[in-house]
Write a structure and sequence with these properties.
Elements (H helix, E strand, L loop, with lengths): L7 H11 L1 H8 L8 H9 L2 H6 L11 H16 L3 H14 L30 H15 L3 H13 L7 H15 L10 E4 L20 E6 L3 E6 L8 E6 L2 E4 L19 E2 L7 E2 L2 H8 L2 H5 L3 H4 L4 H11 L3 H17 L18 H5 L10 H21 L15 H21 L1 E8 L6 E10 L14 E6 L2 E6 L22 H12 L6 H4 L47 H21 L9 H17 L5 H15 L4 E4 L4
Parallel strand pairs: 8-12
Antiparallel strand pairs: 1-12, 2-3, 4-11, 5-9, 6-7, 8-9, 10-11
Helix pairs in contact: 1-2, 3-16, 3-17, 5-6, 5-7, 6-7, 7-8, 8-9, 13-17, 14-17, 16-17, 20-21, 21-22
Length: 650
């Protein structure tokens, strides 16, 4: 767990500085039975931590000279007709070019910054319009006329030299002429395809993001979990909720919009830093007036951190300190006095997935974590608190001027970060983007970030999961991928599953990362991996679930008769025919299925659902055909989302 935070070396150096005996004494203050406030307060009192763990914030300054260098590289690529390479360099040139400040409407604030009466490299804005002008040339050659026109206007807006404006005017006229002809409607570099968002057919009355087919339950061993209230068929949507908090991975900060997370091949820069991009003026102003405004001064340090640190940071900073302080006191009191089944529900008895209450009450597994891990997590919270103080944009007065927070406020925020880091380690998800690119144009889910949502986090793990959990744009969605009978637990998967990973590997990963030993059927019964699964199926007895002998149509265990003239509710012949026909239909469809298909035919989905349903009802598990069908259905369902189509070469 310590390594998963990415700060284990810093923590090791801190403890090593104390020496073995002293560090052992310090670690005694970090135990699962202790309160997070007490543990963080102790950590904040460690003088050595303030020197050893004070995070460095590398400068993210704009630079005219760097912008000019990158623009020069773009010019070389443009002259060689390497348009994709030229576009990349011009994008970077714009990103690092000094940028005038903008007001809340996106208009330039006419207040030139000078030092000692002279304009410095960092506030000389000449490179920005030149970058936009050069990028417009590439966009014209790529026949991206609408985007070309936008860049021409930006070049004028930011002060493109009058002596050079004539060529931009001619380029603008060329765009207009091209757009009036068929030539003006070429393929875009990036095309976004939106699908109709999934909806819940019948929401749960007290958990509105959850289907009424499912309820929350509690057990001493499993904690809170989800259970079916009625029969659920494969393909049924069980959860739809807005993602509570999300963040991009560090390597995607300059490829995806910092506000909406869409792919950016023609981005807009942040006026202050060179770390992030935006897809439009609307998203840029949203970011500059929201989360990015607070993160901008510290993003070089924050962005390089593990996402299980960034998500808690974003959860905390969604609320002002005055609001958060009162809520923390209230929720800590509730956690001590309420039943676990009541936690996260508001005064009206509603589990509101948009509320901080619901996200705060997710499991942290604090009691299961060892002292070294708790110390490391607390160190992460310490570093985040330091960054909050460094930003000077969170601890502010009513006029948004920075203030010196009280020790009580610092401890309150730090301990809340401590709490949410533990929670994210147990409840975080990967944020995926469906991309269509590459030589064969096949669909692929790329992990571009991380996210967390309260309702989806209620589902426990099984190595033979009953549902898939994924993001569809800004929505978190859960869909059934097997038949779930009333009273059966609704389980998701934290791993790739029994078909891909053997038992010992699964147990090791689950214990190291999620702090539990799995007791699902594949683990307790020792199911083999996919290649070793049986190809043929056996029908099961509806009473005891043992196999039915084909020779006499009787259960091998209890002897129940499944012959045609038996009074039982099922006939072996009828069950065998239903399962066999469903398998045959699925295998024929699977044989002819085009793997590059994005939007699957409805009949293909139905055929896949049918074979899963029939085998769930009548066949003994595990089985290779069934496992294949579930895996195939997962692919079909994951692809039913917004997707981005990237022009080849970009």
């Amino acid at each position: 767990m310590a390594e998963s935070l990415g700060i284990d070396t810093k923590v090791h150096n801190l403890l090593a500085g104390y020496g073995g005996e002293k560090s052992s004494e310090i670690l005694k203050n970090y135990q699962g039975k202790f309160d997070v406030v007490d543990m963080f307060s102790h950590f904040w009192s460690l003088e050595e931590a303030h020197s050893c763990l004070d995070p460095e914030v590398p400068p993210s300054r704009k630079s005219k000279s760097e912008s000019e260098r990158l623009r020069g590289e773009g010019n070389k690529a443009f002259q060689k007709k390497n348009l994709s390479e030229a576009l990349k360099h011009y994008n970077l040139s714009i990103l690092v070019a000094p940028h005038p400040p903008l007001d809340c409407e996106g208009e330039i604030i006419n207040s030139p910054a000078v030092e000692n009466g002279e304009v410095t490299d960092e506030n000389n804005y000449e490179a920005l319009p030149l970058g936009y002008a050069n990028r417009s040339a590439v966009l014209f050659e790529l026949k991206q006329y609408e985007e070309c026109l936008k860049d021409i206007e930006r070049a004028f807006q930011y002060g493109y030299p009058e002596s050079l404006q004539n060529k931009l005017v001619k380029r603008r006229e060329g765009c207009t002429t091209a757009m009036e002809s068929l030539e003006g409607r070429p393929d875009r570099l990036v095309t976004y395809h939106a699908v109709t968002p999934p909806i819940l057919a019948s929401p749960n009355s007290t958990l509105p993001a959850l289907s009424s087919s499912v309820k929350m339950a509690l057990s001493p061993t499993a904690g809170r979990y989800l259970v079916a209230q009625k029969e659920i068929l494969p393909g049924e949507v069980l959860v739809v909720e807005e993602v509570y908090s999300r963040c991009l991975y560090h390597q995607n900060l300059q490829t995806h919009c910092n506000s909406c997370f869409t792919r950016c091949l023609i981005p807009l820069p942040c006026p202050s830093c060179k770390m992030v991009v935006f897809c439009s003026q609307v998203c840029r102003m949203k970011g500059l007036s929201g989360q990015h405004s607070l993160e901008c001064p510290i993003l070089p340090a924050l962005g390089a951190m593990n996402t299980c640190l960034i998500i808690p940071f974003r959860i905390i900073t969604k609320l002002p300190i005055s609001t958060l302080r009162s809520l923390l006191a209230q929720f800590r009191s509730e956690k001590d006095g309420k039943s676990p089944l009541a936690l996260g529900f508001n005064e009206k008895g509603i589990y509101d997935p948009t509320s901080y209450r619901a996200i705060y009450c997710l499991v942290t597994n604090k009691e299961k974590r060892d002292s070294r891990t708790l110390f490391t997590i607390c160190a992460g919270a310490f570093m985040l608190t330091k960054l909050l103080l460094r930003s000077q944009r969170y601890f502010v007065d009513d006029s948004q001027k920075p203030i010196e927070p009280s020790r009580e406020d610092v401890i309150a925020i730090g301990s809340a970060l401590f709490h949410h880091i533990m929670s994210d380690l147990s409840n975080g998800h990967h944020y995926g983007e469906l991309q269509i690119s590459g030589s064969d144009g096949s669909p692929d889910i790329k992990k571009i970030g991380a996210w967390v949502s309260p309702t989806l986090s209620l589902a426990n793990h099984s190595c033979d999961q009953a549902v898939i959990t994924c993001n569809k744009g800004s929505l978190g969605v859960m869909v059934a991928i097997q038949l779930i009978k009333p009273g059966q637990e609704v389980t998701t998967g934290y791993l790739r599953g029994y078909g891909s990973q053997n038992l010992s590997l699964r147990k090791e990963i689950l214990m190291n990362n999620y702090l539990f030993s799995c007791t699902c059927r594949p683990c307790t019964e020792g199911w083999p991996t996919f290649n070793q699964l049986p190809d043929n199926y056996q029908l099961k007895c509806c009473e005891c679930s043992h196999f039915i002998n084909r020779s006499d149509n009787k259960c091998s265990e209890c002897g129940l008769d499944y012959s045609m003239d038996s009074p039982t509710a099922f006939s072996f012949t009828t069950m065998d025919q239903e399962v066999g026909l469903a398998i045959l239909t699925f295998l024929r469809m699977r044989r002819d299925f085009n793997m590059n298909t994005i939007v699957a035919k409805q009949e293909d989905i139905i055929a896949t659902i049918k074979v899963i349903e029939k085998m769930d009802r009548y066949a003994i598990m595990p089985n290779k055909i069934y496992a294949n069908a579930k895996s195939f259905l997962v692919g079909l369902l994951r692809n039913q989302t917004d997707y981005v189509q990237i022009k080849r070469g970009f």
